[in-house]
């Protein structure tokens, strides 16, 4: 067994059971970093209507900015960065990514047109959209395996808090700056000033990352990095991975649509400003993410005890079934109804995402897990960004009236929910045996 150090030299690896004290200071710093990444990554969502009016851009161009500009970095760089995480110095990579999302957010405040905004969001997306595997890899090596669950739960809550803060901080700050136009930078539009202040804060939070030392790598085995063995392994499990990708693909459409167009729906159909809805939308997102993560974790562990094939995916099937009627959130007659039904949709999505990851970790061998999770991430990002944006804008053009976009989102959620339900059901029916069971059987 070998380990790879920062200078890429091979030295004997420490046994997996070697005791090491959990570096909770690093864990909290990594949690704050992920929180910051997801806050700046979603900051434009509650402010996009104001940006659209200021820059005089169309719905199609807006869809490209909020979808394509953030999806491109993840789609192109997810696998190369995953390789770097496994072989190179991670703390330096994290500093570079954090610097990019701070620079992109600050640059957003000074764009003059569609092309400038697209470029600024692209730069921010390179950092915010690719930081997760770096953070997880660092976290795994600063705590014992027996304590990684608690550490990962903290990281998960930090991630959902970041998504919520994009609406809560972005909307509330926008509302304050709109009411006090000379509070900080006189003459700057509130949505621009919000990005400027948030970007400066993100830049300052990059500085503590310089204090993180590259940790020693644990539980590393020398393995071939050839592509063909991995492809053959994927093909062998095509009846499981194929439906799983279909379920993730279809589910990503509804979740992506909610993330991209929620702010526009609240402005156009419910006549709320970002200052009005930022706070409560943030609470709904945070609540749905935390509740869904807890339910997903416990039900995944419970389902594994059932004597049925692929039982670990059963919570994902149930949560997807719940999300189908919850797709009606954008046509609720009141804002209160919108909030509660959206909470149900986001809770179901959090359950599905956690169970997806847990199923891969339990049912696939170690050398296939990272690539499989990266594939799911790429599919979800591309589907939830550019593909969803084009579909929603195209569907909305066929529905007249102020509720056209809400009706489009509802139909999209129902149809894709049924497809996703079928995908997870077939994946469960064709799931491989747990790796631990196969190991015991061959012992």
UniProtKB/TrEMBL annotation:
Major facilitator superfamily (MFS) profile domain segment(s): 26-435
Keywords: Membrane, Transmembrane, Transmembrane helix, Transport
Subcellular location, principal: membrane
InterPro entries for the chain: MFS (IPR011701), MFS_dom (IPR020846), MFS_spinster-like (IPR044770), MFS_trans_sf (IPR036259)
Positions of transmembrane segments: 26-48, 60-82, 94-112, 118-140, 152-174, 194-212, 240-265, 277-300, 312-332, 338-364, 376-399, 405-427
GO CC, alphabetical: membrane
Subcellular location(s) of the protein: Membrane
Topology in membrane: Multi-pass membrane protein
MF annotations from Gene Ontology: transmembrane transporter activity
Gene3D superfamilies associated with the record: MFS general substrate transporter like domains (1.20.1250.20)
UniProt name for this protein: MFS transporter
Source organism of this protein record: Brevundimonas goettingensis
